[in-house]
Amino acid sequence: MGLQHPRTRIQQKNRETILDAALEVFSQHGFRGATLDMIATEAGLSKPNLLYYFPSKEAIHVTLLSQLMDTWLDPLRDLDADGDPVAELRAYVRRKLELSRDYPRQSRLFANEIVQGAPRMQAALATDLKALVDEKSTIIAGWSKSGRIADVDPHHLIFSIWALTQHYADFDVQIRAVLGADRDPLAEAEGFLDTLFARLLAP
Fold first, then answer.
1. What CA dihedral angle connects 42, 45, 46 and 47, to 10 degrees?
2. pLDDT tens, 59-81?
3. Domains and CATH numbers, the chain
4. How many CA atoms, within 13 angstroms, populate the side-chain half-sphere of residue 194?
């Protein structure tokens, strides 16, 4: 098998341009509604040029989801077994809320994939995601057992953190419609969620 040559700066830039364009198209139209022509137009490239970098719409989608999974799992990876349990979990909530603020399109892309039954992510969910959640749940369970945090179900604690933070990205339009244009939902949410989980986790 021949050696793969490193990508040139232009090739890397074009890949990033395509992925960013695809993220915009997928987040607006979903996987089924998106087309290669739409992505190429958004990227400012010809369709043949796009196909030089990615052989199919699915290949672009899978690349985006794989990158997103890494980004999404980083805050959970950072949960430190040797840290103060309440402080570690409150920091996790803040990091997840920051992801909703900084990567709303990615969050909606991920949510759309899950709602469709995760046809392109099932393997990653059952392996990488499950393994990490199980590992961190064991740590949280140990904190509960030792009385360092309240007695909580670790898996459902993690699910609740996901639900309460990612909601601000996935349902942004609904939240802003209810709160009005003069309020900052994520700024308000940070204090509210910090207080909520501090009280929930207090031993």
1. -60
2. 999 999 888 888 889 999 999 99
3. 7-55 (1.10.10.60), 64-201 (1.10.357.10)
4. 13
